[in-house]
Design a protein that fits this description.
CATH architecture of the largest domain: 3-Layer(aba) Sandwich
Keywords: Cytoplasm, Glycolysis, Kinase, Magnesium, Metal-binding, Transferase
Catalytic activity: beta-D-fructose 6-phosphate + diphosphate = beta-D-fructose 1,6-bisphosphate + phosphate + H(+)
Bound molecules: 6-O-phosphono-beta-D-fructofuranose
Distance between the termini: 58 Å
Radius of gyration: 21 Å
Pfam families: PFK
Oligomer: single chain
Strand order of the largest sheet: 3-2-1-4-5-10-11
Number of strands: 11
Subcellular location: Cytoplasm
CATH topology of the largest domain: Rossmann fold
Number of helices: 12
Structural class: alpha/beta
EC number: 2.7.1.90
Length: about 350
């Protein structure tokens, strides 16, 4: 069998490890892999690269994706889906492994419904895919954010400042939540919750007068009261481009105004997507890649690999892309235990 592998959406740690594993496991079945370059754009334009043992050897150390990626949505391009299907035929691909988040896998689901033999592999630093307990990319990204938070605490303590760390995560607060809990942050702001500004300010004042510094971790996706959100800055999947909102900066101004304390902000942005993957992500991504190759071998298309407990299982792409996994009240109440 000839299997096309592609990576779409934002890159994250673990993609190379998943590609490597899918290629290596496919070899056990006598299957051949072909790399599709730059996500769905590669299939629209027919851009591919060879993907054998030689290409995947030595990539276990590296984040990013050797295949390149894009946020191209074939259903938003003229005749995009048609071109994808034509190229699948032309390239002789008998199956497709699509590695991505909700957007890439949403496209995979539609294509499957239209007859394409596709298997999904969930990846995203946002950890917002339901149907899987964790996505690879998340652990490495929070580990990086955690390092930043610890560094901020050192300098914040010296200067008696309120330090604000803005992390990515889009519309889900998992990255902010885990970074905040693990770094001992004094407050966390999540996109899922309306910010309780007065309560936060009162608390930050109290914390600062006790220990001379405070740390706030905010997600890039929060909306402050009275903030106007423009509909203009959206990507091809209709997601707001959040980096333009500068929530950390806005928050720092607000904290300074309301507390009279000095505040500083750090936006770590894409630092969270590169660098060597954590142990957890290397293992999870490797398990996902192997399972994807096995699903192809078994002819189980329209499925996505998922982690449930400690088991790697398959779930339908339909179920996997039905809704986002967001931070619930139980997690928020848990985090609040440490706002002392
Ligand atoms: O979905 C992953 C993610 O890193 C989000 O957390 C973030 O909002 C977005 O991608 C940034 O996208 P880009 O790399 O296109 O700026």
């Amino acid at each position: 069998m000839r299997i096309g592998i592609l990576t779409g959406g934002g890159d994250c740690a673990g993609l190379n490890q998943a590609i490597r594993a899918a290629v290596m496991r496919s070899l056990d079945f006598g299957n051949e892999c072909l790399g599709v370059l730059e996500g769905w754009r590669g299939l629209i334009e027919g851009k591919t690269t060879s993907l054998g043992l030689k290409e995947v050897e030595g990539i276990i150390e590296k984040s990013g994706t050797i295949l390149g990626t894009s946020r191209t949505n074939p259903y938003q391009e003229e005749e995009g889906a048609k071109k994808v299907k034509e190229n699948i035929k032309k390239l002789g691909l008998e199956a497709l492994v699509a590695m991505g988040g909700e957007d890439t896998l949403g496209v995979a689901r539609k294509l499957f419904e239209e007859g394409v033999k596709v298997v999904g592999v969930p990846k995203t630093m946002d950890n917002d895919l339901s149907a899987t307990d964790y996505t690879f990319g998340f652990d490495s990204s929070v580990t990086r954010a955690l390092e930043a938070a610890s560094v901020l605490i050192d300098t914040g303590r010296s200067h008696r400042r309120v330090m604000i760390l803005e992390v990515m995560g889009r519309h889900a607060g998992w990255v902010a939540l885990f970074t905040g809990i693990a770094s001992g942050a004094d407050w966390i702001l999540l996109p899922e919750r309306k910010p309780e500004i007065e309560e936060m300010i009162k608390h930050i004042r109290a914390v600062h007068s006790r220990k001379n510094y405070a740390l706030i971790v905010t997600s890039e996706g929060i909306t402050l009261p009275e903030q106007k959100v423009g509909a203009e800055d959206q990507d091809k999947f209709g997601h707001m481009i959040l980096k333009k909102r500068k929530m950390g900066e806005t928050l720092a101004k607000l904290v300074e105004e309301k507390t009279g304390l000095e505040a500083r902000v750090l936006v770590i942005g894409h630092m969270q997507r590169g660098g060597g993957p954590s142990l957890f992500d290397r293992i999870l991504a490797t398990r996902c890649g192997v399972k994807a190759a096995e699903l192809v071998k078994e002819g189980k298309f329209g499925q996505m690999v998922a982690l449930r407990g400690n088991e790697i299982v398959e779930v339908s792409l339909k179920e996997a892309t039905a809704k986002l996994k967001l931070v619930d009240d139980a997690w928020w109440n848990f985090a609040k235990v440490f706002f002392k």
